[in-house]
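Q: Hi! First time doing this. I have a protein sequence and I read that you can turn it into a structure. Is that right? Here it is:
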Amino acid sequence: MITTNNFVNELDLALQEKHKGEIRQKIKDKGLCAFVFTLGCQQNEADSERIRGVLREVGYKITENEEKADLLIVNTCAIREHAERRALSIIGRFKHYKAKNPDIIIGVCGCMTAQEHRANQIKHSYHYVDFTFGTSMLYRLPEFINNALNKGKRRFLLDSEKPQIAEGLEIERESNYKAWVSIMYGCNNFCTYCIVPYVRGRERSRNMKDVLDEVKDLAKRGYKDITLLGQNVNSYGKDLEGKPTIADLLNEIAKIEGDFMIHLMTSHPRDASSEMIEALSKNPHSANHFHLPLQSGSDAILKKMNRHYDKQRYLSIVDELREKNKGITFTTDIIVGFPGETEEDFNQTVEIVKKVRFDSIFSFIYSPRKGTPAYEMEQVPEEIKHKRYDYLCQVQNEISNEINQTYVGKIIRVLVDGKSKNNENVYTSRTEGNKIVHFECDNDYTGEFINVKITKADTFALYGEKI
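A: Yes, that's right. Below is the predicted 3D structure, encoded as structure tokens:
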């Protein structure tokens, strides 16, 4: 059983089916094209795959050339002010398309438009935009398009106070061997630097059966790399009846036949349970890689961030993962220059980096985000933030290089991603530990697992030859 108020009801979904049918009739045989521009995280990429799926279902052809599009949609990000400025710039350049062809439809969605001030800004300053909608309104896209085709009033909708999940939407996946599978939406953690809970709402988990059906279908179709997505996948199921856990989900995925690997994105240390770690260790599909955001090695800063764990708790999770998963690779996120960060706080972060020895880190200079508690805190001077950032990167680069050198001479299974952009004879691939491997080959094995012998390594990649 599931909590019924988590999900869009059948009547609302039936209404969207009616709009789909009307759109098909209106654009039939017209050869109309749609262009979707995506900014932001993996969840936005997954959302855009659903947007493209809906567009193709109602009769639009998907184009990568915005100049040929009859329908343009920008899927926006709000994680930083810079991301919003970029989105507005992209929307701005669409103005001349509408001037040339008033029948072109322009829509804007995603995290940025879930904020009332941004939706109002687009409404009043970008008069050629036909509609905006928040992150949980994606299922209503047929309604918005149909209204625009009917020359109805421009529409600017925010998310509801209790956003819901809509199942059954078509998906136009970018890859035929790598896939995103959203298992939950929203966030309950309210880290003081993060806008996500305000633009994506509270946590909502998908029914386990729907997730498993999606993974089974992907495995049957030969997908090799499947990433389970959520703002905090470790808290999956808390809002469902029976309270299934991420461990329960992983144990069920373990039973699915097929040669594929599972990644998690993203895990919060607060909810990283021993049961989940045990389930990962026993799951034959689990990639031996774990991304566990640290954000800071200082307990004082972690408290100011509202992260709900300390460095000892974080280190204990790393130890348990390494004990149960031999050879596991670790990546993390770290924020440098959070408000109030002292030199001692920063040094404690460096100490954790040296102690854990991450394979790589995604490090960010703190950027004040209006609408979050940290925006009002006393800021660290920019020159200090940049100096600390440069030093942290130097420390991590040395560690990454040392770790990568240990792979030289080893034979490793990789999933081939395709030809290198810089050299036609070189292919790029990734290990299950998410390490980049370049190798020369005469045949194209894109989307397949192969074995590569590593012949050299540097800070950012491994190099080898196909076995």
